[in-house]
Amino acid sequence: AAEYAKVREQFGRPIGQFQGVKHKAARALIALEQARAAAWDASRALDEGAADAGFAAAVSAVIAVDAGVQTARDAIQILGGIGFTWEHDAHVYLRRALTLRSLLGPSKDWAAEVARLALGGGRREVVLELDEDAQPLRERIRAEIAELAAIEDKDALNARMGDEGWSVPHFPKPWGREAGPVEQILIQQELKAAKVKAPNLGIGAWLVPSLVRYASQEQKERFLRPTLRGQIVWCQLFSEPGAGSDLASLSMKAERVEGGWKLTGQKIWTSLAQHAQWGFCIARTDPDAAKHDGITYFLVDMKADGVDVRPLRELTGEALFNEVFLDGVFVPDDQVVGEVNRGWQVARNTLSNERVSLSTGGGLGMGVPELLRFFENRQPDTVVTAEVGKLVAQGQSIDLLGLRTTLKQLNGVEPGAEASVRKLLGVQFNQDVADYCWAAQGTAAATEVLMAESGIVARAMLFSRAMTIYGGTTEVQLNIIGERILGLPRDPEPGK
């Protein structure tokens, strides 16, 4: 269907260029990757004779069977009239998917089985098991981490971890440890086992790779070391009122002055700007250049004269992000990262790091553990049990996508679609869990006691609305999957 969408033309362009078609194809790919991950895990669990193979099989039945039916239907829709003919094979796939679902039974029954097993402590762990060949390296890493665990002063621990490359172990020395994929996994596992936490880089984690790649040696010494120690709080000064997803249309201007630049304009949706010491900012240094040219990447002192930070109250009632006004803020030449007018390259590097960071999951929303804790002391009815099981299966499949990505990296293979798919599924899953738990409270959902369960769930539910916006909106991510993975035509330029 995707190949057909590349060549079938209507209204003077390929139908795959229309977002309605492109997004449908992208969502079909997402369903396919999710189903593949679930079926793969069930197959290996059965091959191994694992005690939790029943859970893996039930998850696969929930995810893969319905995905097969929906994907076959969507393929026919994309194909249009030709997909409705007997001659085309599309109907064969639909018939096969429908027959398989009929033979296996309703997915709600399998979802109820997933919930029963998970609530009873029978959820299958998604863990990466390394070969015995990795044991000597594990022992060496464990010994080094034991020394770190003995450091009681948090600041001293952060300084040592930052200086010895534990903050970004995959980076080259002296900033990282030049750790390959296996060593990175071992470090992560051993730090967790020893309950040693690496310095919290926060938003600075998005900046670090860009500094390593583009910054001068003096800039690296000045900014990288304290950032890796967790000593600098950063904010990202990218988005503007008229430049969100279309970031290259930014209008903040930077004027050349003696010894540096003066920045003037407005940034918005800037998380943690009210707490940040430094910000990484892009501004237009050549207004006559093409859209993606004439942009320069700056490091801005957030305490400099002319910086005005105004917190924005969010729908949660809190103020995580801000609008930031720069009024003739002086930035010296030694705080320009990369070449003047070539800052878009640096910004793209930072944005890719932001998306990778967000795609790896983390404690920003409600997941399977929170879902199971919410229902462990409740007695859900049949309908609720099936819904809980469906959510558990969704969460399990997302974890499996992460595992498959890691395994590919260990074998020197590019991850492919899994990483992009996981980001999209992950944020939607966080929303779905929070929404469901909030609604399941009944009348208690109408009130909010901040530190009680109702308040915690309410905040998670409200905050989750941001998850499909920041780090690249769902719609933009669907475009990326459709264009870069499926090879569908790019959206036309405005006016064409």
Automatic annotation (TrEMBL):
Residues 1-107, 341-486 form the Acyl-CoA dehydrogenase/oxidase C-terminal domain. Residues 235-318 form the Acyl-CoA oxidase/dehydrogenase middle domain. The keyword Oxidoreductase applies. InterPro entries: Acyl-CoA_Oxase/DH_mid-dom, Acyl-CoA_Oxase/DH_mid-dom_sf, AcylCo_DH-like_C, AcylCo_DH/oxidase_C, AcylCoA_DH/ox_N, AcylCoA_DH/ox_N_sf, AcylCoA_DH/oxidase_NM_dom_sf, Mycobact_Acyl-CoA_DH. GO terms for molecular function: flavin adenine dinucleotide binding; oxidoreductase activity, acting on the CH-CH group of donors. Keywords: FAD, Flavoprotein, Oxidoreductase. Residues 139-230 form the Acyl-CoA dehydrogenase/oxidase N-terminal domain. The keyword Transcription does not apply. Its cofactor is FAD. Signal peptide: none annotated. One of its GO terms (cellular component) is plasma membrane. Belongs to the acyl-CoA dehydrogenase family. PANTHER family: ACYL-COA DEHYDROGENASE, ACYL-COA DEHYDROGENASE FADE34. This is Acyl-CoA dehydrogenase.
